[in-house]
């Protein structure tokens, strides 16, 4: 693993305003990649009360991609 490449998981709800002015909030997890302290990528994956197989697979894919990114080719 490279010390200049860091992956963080953050619980980050998304807030969206609808046409009527009400704000809706969606819970989710952000997978944030930083290189030397600068954010280079962010993937947000929704997390619901009853996650589906597709939700689980999306999170696994985001985590795997982030893990592979921390291990640059020699």
Structure write-up:
With 74 residues, this protein is α+β, with helices and mostly antiparallel strands. It has one domain (5-69). Helices cover 23% and strands 43% of the residues. Strands 1-4-5 form a three-stranded antiparallel β-sheet, covered by helices on one side. It has a two-stranded antiparallel ribbon with strand order 2-3. Strand 4 (28-35) and strand 5 (38-46) form a beta hairpin. The longest helix is centred in the C-terminal third of the chain and has 17 residues, at 53-69.
Topology at a glance:
Layout: E1 5-11, E2 14-17, E3 23-26, E4 28-35, E5 38-46, H1 53-69
Briefly characterize the structure.
With 74 residues, the protein is α+β, with helices and mostly antiparallel strands.
Structural class, please? alpha+beta
Number of domains: 1
Strand content: 35-45%
Number of beta strands: 5
Count of discrete alpha- or pi-helical segments spanning 4 or more residues = 1
Spans where pLDDT lies below 50 across 5 or more residues: none
- Could you report the average pLDDT, rounded to the nearest whole number? 87
- Residues in helix, %: 10-25%
């Amino acid at each position: 693993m490279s010390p200049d490449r860091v992956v963080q998981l953050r619980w980050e709800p998304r807030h969206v305003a609808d046409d009527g002015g009400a704000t809706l909030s969606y819970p989710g997890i952000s997978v944030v990649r930083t290189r030397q302290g600068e954010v280079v990528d962010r993937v947000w994956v929704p997390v619901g009360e009853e996650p589906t197989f597709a939700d689980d697979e999306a999170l696994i894919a985001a985590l795997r991609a982030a893990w592979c990114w921390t291990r640059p080719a020699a």
